[in-house]
Amino acid sequence: MSEAAKKSDRKRLQPEERKDMLLESAVAYLRDHGIATLTMDRLAQNAGVSKPLMYNYFPNRMALLKAVLVREVNMRRARDAQIAKEAETLEDLIRMASRHTLEHIQARGNIIQQLLQEPEIAQVMTDMRSEARGGYVDYITKKACATYDLPPDIARVVVQLLMNMGTNAGALFDREKGDIDQAHDILLTLTTGAIEAAVRKYAKKPRA
């Protein structure tokens, strides 16, 4: 495509499309180069736009990074919600959600964990978790109570620990660049073992 055609194509983008394109370009940069070297100049160059155009959408680097975080978290949450609807059992939900986590990181890099290196961005994540994650945790906790006959307080702790296990597994998978099928199998094995141990110890009516 010629430079003139590229410029014409850029002009046809609506503001929200342009913003989405810039955020996706930021994700690609973070995946390939990391957060330390990201500047507004470099991102503008990476996205093929002018620096003034970048500032039309994001007043500074921190605002851009916060927008990337919110977008990535919302993408993950939307998929989690879809998985929760599709899964017929808690086992299905765990299997599908853990696989999605690894596939998402394989395709896009462990962007969220990179962003959380910035204290100001980490606070945004804390606020988002307090606003929305509780509902998802509550949903899975109820499933765990019904499926495994665990007391609600125990089930909630188990669910949150397993969610953190998935996050840490994703970070390790991204760092080691291992085989996704093997990583998923190991994660499921550890998750299943942890649940079985919790049921043996804490279920209201221990299984035979």
Explain the overall architecture.
This protein has 208 residues and is mainly alpha-helical. It has two domains: 12-59, Arc Repressor Mutant, subunit A (Orthogonal Bundle), CATH 1.10.10; 88-202. The chain is 83% helix and 0% strand. It contains ten helices and no strands. The chain has helices spanning 3-12, 15-33, 40-47, 51-57, 61-86, 90-108, 111-115, 119-148, 152-176, 180-202. Helix 2 packs across helix 5 (61-86), helix 5 packs antiparallel against helix 6 (90-108) and helix 5 (61-86) runs parallel beside helix 8 (119-148). The longest helix has 30 residues, at 119-148. The chain is elongated and about 65 Å long. Residues 1-6 have low confidence and may be disordered.
Tags for this model:
mainly alpha, 2 domains, Homeodomain-like_sf, transcription regulation, 208 residues, Arc Repressor Mutant, subunit A, 83% helix, Transcriptional regulator, TetR family, single chain
Write the layout of secondary structure elements.
Elements: H1 3-12, H2 15-33, H3 40-47, H4 51-57, H5 61-86, H6 90-108, H7 111-115, H8 119-148, H9 152-176, H10 180-202
Helix pairs in contact: 2-3, 2-5, 3-4, 5-6, 5-8, 6-9, 6-10, 8-9, 9-10
Structural class: mainly alpha
Distance between the termini: 68 Å
Low-confidence stretches: 1-6
Instruction: Count every beta strand, where a strand is a DSSP E run of 2 or more residues.
Output: 0
Order of helices and strands: HHHHHHHHHH
In DSSP terms (H or I, runs of 4 or more residues), the helix count works out at: 10
Q: On the 0-100 scale, what is the average pLDDT?
A: 86
Question: How large is the share of residues in beta strands?
Answer: under 5%
> Can you tell me the overall shape?
elongated
What is the helix fraction of residues, given as a range?
A: over 70%
Number of domains: 2
Radius of gyration equals: 20 Å
Describe the oligomeric state of these chains in a short phrase. single chain
How does the major sheet shape up? none
